[in-house]
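Before the break, one more example. Copy the sequence into your notebook; we will annotate it together after we see the structure.
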Amino acid sequence: MSIRLSRAGVDPGDLAGRRGTRAGGAVRVALLPWGQAASLVGLVVIGLVVTDRAGRVSDGTRSRSFPMCGLGFVQSVSYSPDGRTLATASTDGTFGIWDVAAGRARSTRPWHAIARVRFSPDATTVAIEDTSTDVHLVDAGSGVVRSMLRAPANVTGALAFSPDGRVVAAGLCDGRLALWDLASDKVTTTVRAHPGSVAGLAYSPDGATLASGGGDGVVVLWEAASGLPKATLRAHRNQVHALAFSPDGRTLATAARPEPWAKVWDLETRRERLALRADASIVQSLAFSPDGQTLATTGRGGSVRLWDPRTGRERMRLSTGANSAWTAAYSPDGATLAAGNGNLITVWDLRASRRVP
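Here is what the structure looks like once it is written out:
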């Protein structure tokens, strides 16, 4: 049995079995197996894939969309280091591990409250941060919890592995940073970082610097080994929740909520290089391509926008077909980009300027 799916506000009866026009071309509605469609409540439906006959959407690219098993928005995605697997977190508490090539879930499980997922650098573990005082370390193959890292206060959704995989950093709701040594699963360092909560974290590629963002609009650059502050950037007027280092470690991108700006900082001069109006209301996430030539932003507008981080020129806008794109991540080789848009994960093939067929 199959079910036709549509976005909120689109009557499936208007689309089922018909062809219309979108961006000047014929459209079709993708069919998803009933078992993948999961729960439907009233007229709320899980997702829509609308393409022309060649599988293109209005931006001229092609995609593969993975239906999620739940009603929550996909708010966090993380690629494995080999690019073959995606870990996802949804607002309804669903945790998933996905085979990218097959477009199938290897495992999914309900979680009471999940905010962020991150793959370890060796690809064996996924760290899950929920909104309690726990960070869960999950086996990437089976989805089974290996251990729990107990935090001294509630965690906030800010989570990062050190590049060598030896340390997990998490932000706490009382404004502290917590660092765990994974050899012992014990907290080794807590640092008072911001007034209010710590909303964003990112390690520099060499692991020497940990950047944190908080409700004060400030970004603090910490010496990762000692936990001492190195520099402060007066970055935004609101809570800094998204941070991304360029692959060479010389540039930092920041975003705050609720602000439409993504800012790009030169870390040598510690000055703002660019302010990109990347959304009409809120920039949800940031991601640098592995070659550092492109900065991806997502937002309430539902598009993934690709920018030149040196000039600020917008290179491409990828339409997700959803009202909001919450998160995006590049594969380690830069060939694909995955985005959480509504209840779907969409993967684009960027090298061919096509979405995955």
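The mean pLDDT is 79. The longest helix spans residues 12-15. Try to locate both features in your own notes.
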